């Protein structure tokens, strides 16, 4: 279906070769995963297939890429739409019209498909993706998962043979991600579509894929069966890490495979107990944040209805829940950017909305969902200078913190040219310059690969050791399992659960980390807990 | 849920019908009745979409126009003899401006004429805003001939960009707060990130449209030929209109030739864009009735018969969409489902 012949790609003005003489082919009906570190070229590889690279982005391409016999060299992306559909990283940014139905029909209108055929295809696609209920909805009111499904539907109506998706699940909560992935699996099995996904949330997609392309970052790729690639790769989901550690053969990729092999391990661990996480108690440690009966409303919608929350020093609180459950509104209220209807938000006893400047940032550091939201400088160095001045610290402080987090950063680089992981580190450095007592992170692992995530976990642990507190809103169950001391669940603007990480995560099947699914009923959350317990025994 | 809306062009025909009627001085009572009729139709048929607010804005604009007309009419005008109500102090003007004066006696006749003219302005503005409040602008753009499709898409995209622009500004303001930046507002610090945001969004949107086949079937030669014919038709029509205004012979000939060129240009250009429409806007009985009543309305007023019967007929014709038009489709929100 897709074949690469001696393909090389270089961007002008870049020293690095993105791809060097790639030769491989993808047969029809395969579900292929592209994995690799951020910035290694996953998206470029996807865009090469439909010709967006180099037709739309520039870059020097040599070699030949053909899809069903058609060369991307000779055809512009718009001439390949009947063959290839692509869904970008943030589908909402690619929407052209304003309602679901019109968006789905947009591509067909350009192709000049007769009106009756369009009607039929729209109905079929709405049913296929379970969107019939949303057909008249305005696109701006859709949740992340819905937008993703509409974007898929919008390309499917052109009956492509190949579907390309760039990080389809990283912005989604586990349940919405599951929905999208199972639809993709159905498209491969029922319609024989060839699907290629670039994704770094391996724990979500691994069970669905037939083969993996591992982009190594040095211009080479490795193509193979999931077991082969996983056996060699350093970044792997917990289930694979556990399998490798226990020498399980064949290497399990899914919970089911691992559970079948895990009986001896479960017996061994039955006598051991997981290390107890020290949980600071409210009686002995001072409170840093106090939220009382918080109500937040936007135009017609209630975002938060009467939330109470207390966070004391040294706690790591994870806030979880569906997209649109009110997580971001809650976080925003702690720094006074969410307008409050009623209730109180007290930072160290003072109302958050009334704090400003140095007084605010020395209490709370906020890392928004899009890390770029906090950046307005034109180079890394300029950002650091701004931060030093705003935090009223000695010049160079921010830069020093940044070097600890990220030793090999180019100071003259534009913040937008950094990889997602590098950008997060830059924002963290800026925020930490004022040494805030409370750090707030909104969806920090969205664009992070495993190594960047490990670095983030280390940083967060170091912070709590210094007695600072952290609040993070995230869909990443594995991150929560690693760092959180307490988990809060929000649904429809209400707090529906609040308790220790172990208790909350193990009690809900959708939000349980992989290790706890494998070792249930044992109360284990992370791979590192198991290794340290086994070492001690 | 109501699936059907009246064709936007039918709403425009209705609005223009009222506007033309108002401009033909049908009498004060008829003007008032036209305003009431337009308001009745708007409030019973409008949707909750953003453009429905156009009517309220139109009312305010109309009131301002009315007030300005009255002020000008009272303070500054040619003297009209009649019943003097009160006298304003006169401001002397130079000799060469004889015939105009500022201030002076205000007669009831003068007040009545001014009020009627103000009311005409008000009705005109109201009619146009009523049509724009009822006609779905996006459907209207989609119903334009294929040549204008690209301009239509560009307009639709730019309307969706305004909210993005607002969020960009908010985002930068929040970032300043979150970073404890208390410096004076620096233009560069705000403008650069917003510009970067918009550029990024435009690039993303361009890539998405490209990879979804936008411009797939456009044959550029055909379209260029079409637009050349269209351009020349505009020139010829302009010549025709000028001839007509100058009362020189041949105006009708030039005008007719221009119209033929216009139709030909549209046909050629349409043929070169092989674009189809999903759910083309339907033109059915209701649309025909609305257009027919609008034409009747204009004919009635051109008849120049200020009897109570004509005034009544004007009112009935103006509110005819009340009986035939469906209610405009409402915005679908999460709550409604």
What does this protein look like?
The complex is a heterodimer of chains A (537) and B (337). By secondary structure, chain A is an alpha/beta fold. Chain A is 37% helix and 23% strand. Chain A contains 21 helices and 20 strands. Chain A has a six-stranded mixed beta sheet with strand order 6-7-8-3-9-10, sandwiched between helices. The longest helix of chain A is centred in the middle third of the chain and has 18 residues, at 174-191. The mean pLDDT of chain A is 88. By secondary structure, chain B is mainly α. In chain B, 66% of the residues lie in helices and 5% in strands. The longest helix of chain B is centred in the middle third of the chain and has 30 residues, at 149-178. Chain B is globular and about 75 Å long. Chain B starts with 7 loop residues before the first helix and ends in a 13-residue tail after the last helix. At the A-B interface, strand 6, helix 3, helix 4, helix 13 and helix 14 of A face helix 6 and helix 7 of B.
Strand content of chain A: 15-25%
Strand order of the largest sheet of chain B: 1-3-2
Oligomer state of the chains in this structure: heterodimer
Q: Report the count of strand segments of chain B.
A: 3
Shape label of chain B: globular
Amount of beta strand of chain B: 5-15%
- The SS-based structural class of chain A is alpha/beta
How many individual helices of chain A?
21
For the secondary structure, the number of strands of chain A is 20
End-to-end Cα distance of chain A: 53 Å
Characteristics of this structure?
heterodimer; A: about 525 residues; six-stranded mixed beta sheet; about 25% strand; B: about 325 residues; mainly alpha; about 65% helix
Topology:
The complex is a heterodimer of chains A (537) and B (337).
Chain A: E1 2-10, E2 17-26, E3 31-36, H1 42-50, H2 52-55, E4 60-67, E5 70-71, E6 84-87, H3 100-111, H4 115-128, H5 144-156, E7 162-166, H6 174-191, E8 194-198, H7 202-205, E9 211-215, E10 221-224, H8 226-232, H9 238-245, H10 255-261, H11 263-270, E11 287-298, E12 301-312, E13 316-320, H12 327-334, E14 342-347, E15 350-351, H13 357-361, E16 364-367, H14 380-391, H15 397-405, H16 420-432, E17 438-442, H17 450-465, E18 469-473, H18 477-483, E19 486-491, E20 494-500, H19 501-507, H20 514-519, H21 527-536
Parallel strand pairs in A: 3-8, 3-9, 6-7, 7-8, 13-18, 13-19, 16-17, 17-18
Antiparallel strand pairs in A: 1-2, 1-4, 4-5, 9-10, 11-12, 11-14, 14-15, 19-20
Chain B: H1 8-23, H2 28-45, H3 54-75, E1 76-77, E2 84-91, E3 101-107, H4 108-134, H5 137-142, H6 149-178, H7 187-210, H8 220-245, H9 251-272, H10 285-302, H11 308-318, H12 321-324
Antiparallel strand pairs in B: 1-3, 2-3
Helix pairs in contact in B: 1-4, 1-10, 2-4, 2-11, 3-4, 6-7, 8-9, 10-11
